Amino acid sequence: MKWYIIKRLLQIIPVILGVTIIAFTLIHIAPGDPARNMLGQHASQQEIDEIRTKYGLDQPLYVQYFIWLGDVLQGDLGRSILSHEQVTIEIASRFPNTIELAIAAMLFAILIGVIAGIISATKQYSIADYSVMGIALFGISMPVFWLGIMLMMIFGVYLGWLPIGGRIDLLIPFHRVTGFMVLDSIITANGAALISVLSHLILPAIALGTIPMAIIARTTRSSMLEILRQDFIRTERAKGLSERVVIYKHALRNAMVPVVTVVGLNFGLLLSGAILTETVFSWPGVGRLVVDAVYARDYPLVIGCILVFALVFVIVNLITDILYTYIDPRIHYD
Amino acid sequence: MRRDYIINKKAVVAIIFCIMLIAISFSGCVQEESKEKVLIFASAGDADKLDPADVTDGESVERMDNIFEGLVEYKSGSSEIQPCLATSWNISDDGLNITFNLRHGVKFHDGTDFNADAVVFSFERQYNTSHPYNQYGEWAYWGYMFSDIKEVQKIDDYTVKIVLSKPNAAMMTSLAMFTVTIVSPTNAEKWKEDAFKHPVGTGPFKFVEWIKDDHITLEANKDYWRGAPKLDKLIFRVILDPSSRLLALQAREIHGMEFPDPASFNTIKADTNLQLLTAPGMNVGYLAMNCGYGYNDTNKNGVRDPDEPWVETPGYFEPFTNKSVRQAINYAINKTSIVENLYKGTAIVAKNGMPPFMLGYNDAIVDYPYNTTKARELLTQAGYPNGFNTTLWVMPVSRPYMFDPPKIGEAIQSYLADVNINVDFYQIDWSTYLEKTQSGEHPMCLLGWTGDNGDPDNFMNVLYGENQCTLGTAGNVAFYNNSELQSLLSDALQTYDTTERANLYEQAQVILHEDAPFVYLAYANQNLVFTKNVQGFVLNPTARYFFYPVDLT
Fold first, then answer.
1. Is A170's CB within 8 Å of B243's CB?
2. For labeling, which of A77, A303, B166, B468 is most exposed (least CB within 10 Å)?
3. b vs e for B198-213, b when ≥16 Cβ sit within 10 Å of the residue's Cβ?
4. A218: burial class by Cβ within 10 Å (0-12, 13-18, 19+)?
């Protein structure tokens, strides 16, 4: 197992190289450049040329790439052309927000999705089954943007139960330590902040988690159905085990492998940000960061983000693969 | 018999109920604890940087207008200037030297003194490439607006002189711009390349924190030289989407917002707890027709020299080189209907190249009325009795002068179809759109302009002068050249007498109206929405937000 992990970690290198070369080429080939973006309608050729020279944009592409790679290997992702801030700081200031939202969305998706899938599978072809699958279909089909605004309107304005966007009520004094606001409010023993942060998480987590929830529900359902048909289930029931033990202790665990795959993939994707949810809920995540960077042709920031996303995604996949071995003892990597 | 319950339903219901109880019970606690006056204002985006000289985006300017001040400032609600950090000034007879007397007893937020050294530092780092801090920014506005400044000199601790290379009548209003506000040199030295996130100025509010893409908090400068502001804290919150902004306002999570969607105006007006502030905007939205020719500014002097010939633009389209065709298109478009229905009445129908409150606005000009018969007549006269096909370039983003360009493009398409001009659309992302239209690749395009400093030159010369037909960086995207017009504009810039300037600009507008390279659509109002308890906010025609006089009752 140890060698498996080391082998997988080494495989990360060519993957990252490939991803960054492709991304680097694509963003530079696209028309437009950061100088023009900064200057807008005030652009003069002289200023455009000066800015391009200052940031080394007049060099051949492969030279720019190797300079960038050299800096990365020394731990320097450069500075954003537009904001002058270090790329590492730009990403680090948004990443905790994305991580917390991704976790909240996946918790929602897993909790509701797995339960819904189990209900569906155990009461197949009943009204419960059709309702659950109908809601799942609705969830996949609804545009996140619309869903988000509807949620804010209903729960925020009409009912006044939940806040409209943002991460915390800005009037509550709050001290940031790590940037993970749930964690920080616990560390600083700030009860009011914790409640505020959690209540701000609810609606975006629901909006963002609805599609994964629907996918997880369907995956759980089909996986459970397959398991429930198998002989060993019949044996357990014949042994006199309660239905709840049969479902939760035996059938579910066996059905989990495809669900873990779906969860791992979705979680990895969510960690690259969720631009629509972030826009609607004014969530300061990495989705907005990278999309704004692309529009601004902010090359160092774009490539820095893509590098980080690729790394995170590959590592999440590795963890998912290792998790399989714990769920299903038949899977091993030696 | 199998027991059929799979989930302990009661447990699940109980858990959900508890969560909702907790959330409800705490969502109500907002402002009771604090007696501080904290105003939360929602912007449509985050700032880029907090160095006033190094930004071009409105969002950064919003924050910094409350942190920094300049030698002069705009009078409340006006684009006229008055003393600020300079108490008086004197322009030499040849118009080349402006000497400023600086205000005594003003301190920066870091406690250091405001004096001539600070003024010289703030200017010199922008224009002097050997200044140690020049490398930390791009200073985009300097070349564009202040290139006539040769040098800024310290005469003594409270006197500075600005030396110009040629007379520039717009210079005094330009000095009220955010890019030449005064920064603390001590602070710049302390932070060097990170100074952009540690703003220290002399203004009514001090910087507290910047949580990227989320909010920027400012607190009152109790030692402000005019007296402390009424607000204790001012928070700029980032809410990108206009619907979300309005929802936050309706839920009373914020006290004010910018850029409401015109479609929501009825909702806002019907809400007795909200106030909609509207004022004329310093902008113009237009349809530009590519008149065909630009030039390459090979010696980069911003002027078309005899050795820089006119060349055809890539988007050259013969019908638009004909004045009658351009006039016909002016007759064919129903601007009143566009302003009423698409701008939802939040704009003034435009007839000239700059808004009505600008010096030299020619109100005597009679606009082209909506008249399809006349349009067809002109087209036939011009040799296009059956019309023609072309492409209309449309912006992909919302602009202050045009909230929804695609809708306006559709309206224009249908008006032109009535006179047998069939247009299809071309759209591309914003910075590429600018690059290509500045290179003259379009036959006709929607665009516009928001004024920078309140001076007519900032519209008339920047947008309509033939020197601005530089291929690749054109300000004049109609690529319209008229040397008589250019000499009127150049003279007006160097004339300090306002009556004479006004006269020159009026003549310029007559020429523009006759040659019709543009269809001027609208001067969009600026609209801000506040809750009723926000008092004292005055809209400024330059669309800058000054929160010093504001109170929360």
1. no
2. B166
3. bbbbbbbbbbeebbbb
4. buried
Cα–Cα separations (whole angstroms), residue B412 to A227, B253, B324, B382? 62, 39, 18, 21
Give the count of alpha carbons within 13 A of B36, CB side only. 15
Please give the structure tokens belonging to residue A173. 């004094």
Q: How does pLDDT run across B399-447, given as a tens digit for each residue?
A: 889 989 999 999 999 999 999 999 999 999 888 899 999 999 999 999 9
d(CA A23, CA A307) in angstroms, rounded, equals 9
Residue A199, chain B, CB below 8 Å: the answer is yes
Structure confidence by residue, pLDDT tens digits, B456-482? 999 999 999 999 999 988 999 999 999
Complex-level ipTM: 0.90
The residue among B447, B343, B439, B350 whose CA lies nearest residue B395 is B447
Cβ-contact B411, B256 below 8 angstroms: no
Instruction: Kindly state the helix (H) or strand (E) to which residue B531 belongs, with its residue range.
Output: strand B526-531
Q: Residue A155 carries which side chain, given as an amino acid letter?
A: F
Nearest to B45 by CA among B318, B240, B271: B240
Any B CB within 8 A of A171 CB = yes
Distances (CA, A) of A175 to A103, A163, B38, B135, B393: 22, 20, 18, 34, 49
Contacts of A10 (CB under 8 A, 6+ apart): none
Instruction: Note whether A82 contacts B48, CB cutoff 8 Å.
Output: yes
- The backbone torsions φ and ψ at residue B166, rounded to the nearest 5 degrees and listed phi first, read -150, 160
Among B54, B211, B217, the residue with its CB nearest the CB of A284 is B211
Q: Measured between CA atoms, how close is A134 to chain B, in angstroms?
A: 20
pTM of the predicted model as reported, rounded to 2 decimal places:
0.89
Tell me how far apart the alpha carbons of residues B400 and B258 are, in angstroms, rounded to a whole number. Answer: 10
